[in-house]
Amino acid sequence: MKENLVRYFDLSNLHTTVRREVLAGFTTFISMAYILFVNPSVLGAAGMDKGAVFTATALASALGCILMGILAKYPIAIAPGLGVNAFFTYSVVIGMKIKWETALAGVFVASLIFMLITILKLREAIINAIPRNLKLAIAAGIGLFIAFLGLHDGGLIVANKSTVVGLGSFGVGTTWLTIFGLLVTAILMVRKVPGAIFIGMVATAILGLLTGLIDAPSAIISSAPSLKPTFLVGAFHVGDINSLQLLVVVLTFLLVTFFDTAGTLVGLAEQAGFMVNNKMPRVGRALLADSSSMLVGSLLGTSPTSAYVESSAGIAVGGRSGLTAVTTGLLFIVGLFFSPLLAVVTTQVTAPALIIVGVLMAQSLREIQWDKLEVAIPAFLIVLGMPLTYSISDGIALGFIVYPITMIAAKRGKEVHPLMYALFFVFVLFIWILNQ
């Protein structure tokens, strides 16, 4: 058994061992296990059954990780992405007042397109058409949006009639629970403790239980929650996608997931030293694993999946092969039997995780060419537009509309890819439709 693993994953040439790869897989799982509880919380706000989303999240993550490990042989984990799940809930369902069943159908259609363009090898070409500065801005903007959600959910930022927003009340116990979780997680992150986000959530939940701010669960281990409330719902509601507004939603699911996965894959490949002549070997297989996970996830009942930056934790402890990702996937299956803990994971428990992940995603700001206004202005509108409009799609629209204009003004119009001009008209229509 061990010899077969060494041979299949080429562990000898990668200068690693089965033990090291398994440890790396466990480290990656601990670092991203929070998604099992955060994703049901976020999608639950859209009206979806949290138990079903929990099971869908675990299964889609397990499938994505195992496929990534076996097909592409990379130590990169896949799970429903933070950011795109926020877009699903807060922009599409709550903001546009679209039923979650229809939104899930949008994910299903986007995943079919995702699969098709991956098989036809068009995905790389489409990704390349989007300027790198705007890709960086989208990642950072989603980070700020996620952080803003965390600050609001935790009670640190509240609505204020005089100043639009303001500090929340520090006389509320749950607000201090958020502050405690944020400080613990921040300290652990600074100290580079593996699984810092997950440990911070556990510490916050324990304090909440001890102080009575969180009610104790009736059990810890149980059978996996039923998928029935969400299973195949997306496929059955495809007919609901019958307007230009919903087609733009599908496009946005496609674009957001594009940028998230592509950027993360390249970044992790750079960290692990996989890049060869500025290209990522077996990238087609990695993209196929990702798109397959997204398709299955949409049928099970969860928002789009993507490669996880937390995979860097496993890579940092020596993970270099697909065995790391397979280990992470198997641990997600084990995690299926801990659904009762969902009751303990309140918004105050997940808020610090959202804020810290926002910090990590905002790091891409440093790579934007701020000295070139023709790209800095649209990038800034994307970054600032997402949290201020409370919409990821609106932020993307602002930047994509302005970008061709500023590039033409800078006499660089010929450098703009034809697809970007096409997206200009798409997002002008998008903004017009939203404001009818």
UniProtKB/TrEMBL annotation:
Keywords annotated in UniProt: Cell membrane, Membrane, Transmembrane, Transmembrane helix, Transport
Pfam families: Xan_ur_permease
Family classification: Belongs to the nucleobase:cation symporter-2 (NCS2) (TC 2.A.40) family. Azg-like subfamily.
PANTHER family assigned to the protein according to its UniProt record, in alphabetical order: GUANINE_HYPOXANTHINE PERMEASE PBUG (PTHR43337:SF11), XANTHINE/URACIL PERMEASE C887.17-RELATED (PTHR43337)
Organism name: Loigolactobacillus binensis
Regions that span the bilayer: 21-39, 51-71, 78-96, 102-122, 134-152, 164-190, 197-224, 244-269, 330-363, 375-404, 416-434
Localization per record: Cell membrane
Membrane topology (UniProt): Multi-pass membrane protein
Protein name: NCS2 family permease
InterPro entries documented for this protein: Azg-like, Azg-like_bact_archaea, NCS2
